[in-house]
Design brief:
Layout (H helix, E strand, L loop, with lengths): L1 E5 L7 H4 L23 E5 L29 E11 L2 H6 L2 E9 L2 E10 L6 H10 L1 H7 L6 E13 L8 E6 L6 E10 L4 H7 L1 H28 L12 H24 L2 H8 L14 H9 L1
Antiparallel strand pairs: 1-8, 2-7, 3-6, 3-8, 4-5, 4-7
Amino acid sequence: MTCRRPLYFDYGVHSLVLHANEHVHYTHRDNVAASIIHLPTATLDLSTGPNGRDQWTYVDVEDAAPVAALTPGAKYDLVVDLELAQSATNVDIGTFMVRTEVLWNNITTARSARPVFVHPGHWVVDLSARLVWLLPTLVFGRHGYISQSQSILAINGYKDLRHRPLTAVRVELSHPRVQVARASLSIVAQLSGLRYLMYHWFTVTSTLAILNIAGAQVFGCFVLYLYLTFPPVDEPPGADHDDGDNEGDEELLGDLASNDEEEEGSGLCGDFNTQVFTAESTAHLRWPSSQPHGAAKAT
């Protein structure tokens, strides 16, 4: 997610810039008492409205109620885009600094400084570019100047907090003669996870999310249908009375054991001995040589 707003630099009074010893009298804008040269400065107010406003202020203070422009807790990258004229002035300046400050109620919460310079172009390339832009300039009235675009990552991973939200951004150039054709400030949110997918692939991500939700609902309805259509299987009678069954089994085993003891000590064996093993029935089991032996003794 990117919020891009234009920047308009205030160059101040040019008569002071034309001073012969401008570099000698150069001071930073924070030291107002010793300041002679006004450095180009652009302040972007983001405290009012959903997308901020383009560097104008309310006359009535009651209408200037501050509104947080960023989401608290999220991280953002601040990128300054400069379109610098490829002129002899910018080439002679060489390297200059682009200072960026994040403000909360005119209190600086973050600052950075990045070097920038205009690359000198070859005269053949410059002449060819001017010839190419000659026809659009004459026919359509477009400007045929040659410029170089510089994209500067001023602040990386700035975390906006609820108790000190970002209300304004100030951008300052360290040289008063820098010629800027166009400038803008972009606030890029560092998205991750579902937010990143929703921002870059909104259609695919939303379709998959809807299908997942619908699938979960259909599965839940199917489970409920199975539960209502097929009741649980009935358990065998008395299955819930395991303790009573155990006691009954113990009593049954005890009765069987007592019956066995009674049978062992009953008259079954006695009846068998008295009725089956009598003198007549066991006569054939006697010794056969008992009678001859007795007869021999008698003789």
